[in-house]
């Protein structure tokens, strides 16, 4: 009789402690905003990455996906997410609200470029200046390589970016800007070199319909940021997990599928060139 | 030879094949017409569905100038399976009739004038109503390459543009010809299967008919050939034809048999009449002559030579009388019924003749009582038959006599194991002066025939290599008694 009683006590204790553990985990979910700065429509890969982060941080991780940078910027400013992978243009704009968490290594360097792409059959175009009066696709008004760079180039050549093209439109992602050129809707688009290169690996049939007509200088790679109110412990934990991805098999596998070589802590100085271009535009 | 004179063997499969072809054509034609109708209806329905579902979602895209969003909407129907889409393209135009976005952006560049896309589009551009409250507009002109269905993109009375669903007739025709092709091959397959079946069936149907026809044609030539009923075991019209042919055949055979009997009995009757007539004519003077000789012998006193001559004449006349008497069977002798003793007498009478040849006689005669049959005639009948049988059986032969008494008839069978008779002998057996042996005048069986005939019975002979047998059947109450009113001299 007393033995049975003891067993029941133990069972109850175990049950309540496991409940407590569950409750504790639930309370501290990490929300991570993902943007079209990379091929964010590879949902299976994203789910796997999320599972990986959950296992490494020992915390529930939620990926929040928004197409427009502006939406993600709002989420950061309203503190609805802890971390976000954004473009360098929004990072410069939000400099006061966020901290640089990590920078991905693209082919071993924390940099990327802007590609001017045109339909494959167009062999004349070698610069955005050749596309005057055409239909042009922008990725996002808060994109560096997909918006700021081509406009900057046009402005540098002494023309007005607002009337340079016959028609412009936003596709709200680099990936879709590539599509727009591939199907022949736009005669040109400016896209993230990292997205084009990654797409070239998974869907070479789409990139084959486009031609890279011009390559920009290097810019700091789209950064992963933390909003200012994230506790230091969480910040360091996430930074540690990301930077150690290249040190285990599963992490390396995920990095390979993301077409990245790793993450480093990075420095805000990487984005000075973008800030300079923005200032040039702002002076106008 | 005309077409309709062809054998049914060919006509049946030809008609069957023709009907099948006609049916196949009719079915295919109706199918094709139906398919074309359905395709056209599908097309308009499809256009309306697309318009109704897409126009509302295109409205905000146009409102927010979201070109890419609009493109994603119009290219949606083509993304899953470009081959199965029956429409060629979806074009959104603005209120200035310029291309806002198209599912074929290379052919219909952004901002190009609708009228500049081609002659069909030019005609459409001039016809298209642009009022903000206009309904769905359809343009399907006979000569044009394309069919257009235009759905306004409007909300709350504000029209932002127009969605144009275009159909290429060549695409429709391609789809339709695929259907046609399928129908053609299926029809061909059905024909390939059905025509040989019809041909085989026709031939099979006609084979028994042909056999019957052949047989009937040969009946004219007197060739009565039976048909194996196993050739056609069914009860339909052809089966009934077989049965009818079989009946006809047996009737014809019966008739031929009957005619043969008729001819034979008429011949016998004619012979009988002739014999009786002649016997009668001879009988009368014969009586006188014998009377005269008797008178001469009793009352005259002839010399030796005359006496010798008269005796010679008397013996000759006596022989003539015997012969004539044999030809004239007297039935009206006093009628004493037949008793078992009568038959026993006959056995005793005949036994010496049998013994002379060492003939074995098997006698199984049993009369229950007296029978209402004339004993004299019956005795004569039995004697004649037995003497014949003993003669035919030959040395150490075997003769059997059996009788049987039924309710109303008397059966007599006399058999021997002598030489069998030929069919032609059997045919003329009972005719007078027909002898098949050296001894005998050939009247014995004629007498038997006449007696049996007069008693209303039948006599027949059967002969096999093993035995020859005469069968006599005499009813107890003869229906008729012929009256040869002869009187024989004593």
The portion of residues assigned to helices of chain B is: 40-55%
The oligomeric state of the chains shown is: heterodimer
User: What is the CATH topology of the largest domain in chain B?
Assistant: Beta-Lactamase
Mean pLDDT of chain B: 83
CATH architecture of the largest domain in chain B: 2-Layer Sandwich
CATH superfamily of the largest domain in chain A: Periplasmic binding protein-like II
- CATH architecture annotation name of the largest domain in chain A: 3-Layer(aba) Sandwich
Please, what is the average pLDDT of chain A?
Answer: 87
Provide the number of structural domains of chain B. 3
CATH superfamily membership of the largest domain in chain B: PAS domain
Radius of gyration of chain A: 22 Å
Could you explain how this protein is built, in words?
The complex is a heterodimer of chains A (284) and B (490). With 284 residues, chain A is α/β, with parallel strands linked by helices. Chain A has two domains: 134 residues, Periplasmic binding protein-like II (D-Maltodextrin-Binding Protein, domain 2, 3-Layer(aba) Sandwich), CATH 3.40.190.10; 103 residues, 3-Layer(aba) Sandwich (D-Maltodextrin-Binding Protein, domain 2). Helix content of chain A is 45%, strand content 20%. In chain A, strands 2-1-3-12-4-13 form a six-stranded mixed beta sheet. In chain A, strand 1, helix 2 and strand 2 form a beta-alpha-beta unit. In chain A, helix 2 runs antiparallel to helix 11. In chain B, a hairpin with a 6-residue loop joins strand 3 and strand 4. Chain B has a five-stranded antiparallel beta sheet with strand order 2-1-5-4-3. Chain B is rod-shaped and about 175 Å long. Chain B folds into three domains: 174 residues, PAS domain (Beta-Lactamase, 2-Layer Sandwich), CATH 3.30.450.20; 79 residues, no CATH class; 145 residues, Heat Shock Protein 90 (2-Layer Sandwich). In chain B, helix 8 packs parallel to helix 9. By secondary structure, chain B is α+β, with helices and mostly antiparallel strands. Chain B contains eleven helices and twelve strands. The chains are: A alpha/beta (284), B alpha+beta (490). At the A-B interface, strand 8 of A face helix 2 of B.
């Amino acid at each position: 009789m007393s033995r049975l009683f003891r067993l029941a006590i133990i069972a109850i204790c175990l049950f309540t402690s496991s409940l407590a553990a569950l409750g504790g985990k639930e309370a501290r979910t990490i929300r991570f905003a993902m943007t079209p700065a990379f091929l964010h429509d590879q949902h299976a890969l994203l789910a796997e990455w999320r599972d990986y982060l959950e296992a490494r941080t020992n915390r529930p991780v939620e990926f929040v996906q928004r197409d427009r940078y502006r939406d993600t910027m709002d989420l950061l400013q309203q503190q609805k997410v802890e971390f976000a992978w954004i473009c360098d243009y929004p990072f410069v704009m939000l400099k006061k609200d966020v901290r640089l968490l990590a920078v991905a290594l693209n082919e071993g360097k924390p940099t990327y470029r802007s590609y001017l792409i045109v339909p494959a059959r167009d062999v004349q175009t070698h610069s955005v200046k050749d596309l005057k009066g055409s239909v042009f696709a922008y990725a996002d008004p808060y994109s560096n390589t997909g918006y700021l760079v081509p406009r900057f180039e046009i402005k540098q050549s002494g023309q007005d970016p607002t009337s340079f093209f016959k028609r412009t439109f936003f596709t709200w992602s680099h990936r879709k800007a590539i599509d727009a050129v591939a199907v022949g809707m736009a005669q040109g688009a400016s896209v993230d070199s990292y997205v084009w290169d990654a797409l070239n690996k998974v869907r070479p049939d789409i990139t084959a319909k486009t031609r890279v007509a011009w390559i920009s200088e290097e810019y700091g790679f789209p950064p992963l940021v933390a909003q200012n109110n994230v506790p230091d412990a969480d910040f360091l934990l996430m930074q540690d997990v990301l930077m150690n991805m290249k040190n285990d098999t599963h992490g390396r596998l995920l990095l390979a599928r993301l077409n990245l070589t790793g993450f480093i802590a990075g420095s805000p100085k990487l984005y000075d060139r973008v800030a300079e271009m923005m200032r040039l535009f702002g002076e106008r | 030879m005309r077409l309709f004179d062809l054998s049914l063997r060919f006509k049946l499969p030809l008609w069957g094949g023709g009907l099948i072809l006609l049916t196949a054509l009719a079915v295919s034609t109706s199918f094709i017409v139906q398919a074309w109708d359905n395709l056209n209806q599908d097309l308009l329905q499809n256009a309306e569905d697309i318009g109704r579902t897409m126009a509302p979602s295109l409205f905000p895209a146009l409102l927010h100038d979201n070109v890419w969003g609009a493109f994603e909407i119009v290219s949606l129907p083509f993304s899953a399976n470009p081959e199965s889409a029956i429409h060629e393209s979806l074009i959104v135009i603005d209120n200035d009739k310029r291309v806002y976005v198209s599912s074929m952006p290379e052919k219909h560049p952004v901002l190009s004038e609708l009228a500049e896309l081609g002659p069909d589009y030019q005609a459409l551009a001039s016809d298209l109503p642009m009022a903000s409250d206009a309904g769905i507009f359809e343009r399907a002109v006979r000569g044009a390459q394309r069919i257009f269905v235009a759905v306004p993109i409007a909300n709350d009375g504000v029209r932002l543009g127009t969605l144009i669903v275009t159909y290429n007739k060549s695409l429709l025709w391609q789809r339709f010809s695929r259907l046609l092709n399928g129908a053609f091959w299926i029809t061909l397959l059905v024909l390939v299967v059905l025509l040989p079946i019809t041909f085989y069936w026709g031939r099979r149907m006609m084979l028994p008919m042909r056999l019957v026809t052949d047989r009937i044609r040969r009946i004219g030539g007197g060739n009565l050939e039976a048909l194996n009923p196993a050739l056609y075991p069914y009860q339909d019209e052809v089966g009934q034809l077989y049965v009818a042919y079989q009946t006809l055949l047996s009737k014809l055979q019966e008739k031929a048999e009957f005619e043969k009997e008729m001819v034979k009995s008429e011949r016998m009757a004619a012979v009988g009449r002739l014999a009786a007539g002649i016997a009668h004519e001879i009988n009368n003077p014969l009586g006188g002559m014998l009377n005269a000789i008797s008178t001469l012998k009793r009352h005259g006193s002839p010399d030796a030579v005359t006496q010798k001559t008269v005796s010679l004449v008397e013996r000759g006349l006596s022989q003539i009388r015997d012969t004539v008497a044999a030809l004239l069977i007297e039935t009206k002798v006093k009628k004493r019924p037949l008793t078992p003793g009568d038959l026993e007498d006959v056995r005793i009478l005949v036994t010496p003749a049998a013994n002379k040849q060492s003939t074995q006689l098997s006698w199984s005669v049993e009369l229950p009582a007296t029978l209402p049959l004339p004993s004299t005639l019956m005795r004569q009948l039995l004697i004649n038959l037995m003497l014949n049988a003993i003669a035919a059986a030959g040395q150490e032969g075997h003769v059997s006599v059996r009788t049987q008494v039924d309710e109303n008839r008397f059966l007599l069978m006399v058999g021997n194991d002598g030489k069998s008779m030929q069919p032609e002998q059997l045919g003329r057996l009972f005719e007078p002066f027909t002898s098949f042996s050296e001894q005998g005048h050939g009247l014995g069986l004629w007498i038997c025939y006449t007696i049996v005939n007069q008693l209303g019975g039948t006599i027949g002979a059967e002969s096999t290599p093993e035995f020859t047998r005469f069968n006599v059947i005499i009813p107890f109450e003869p229906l008729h008694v012929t009256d040869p009113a002869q009187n024989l001299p004593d």
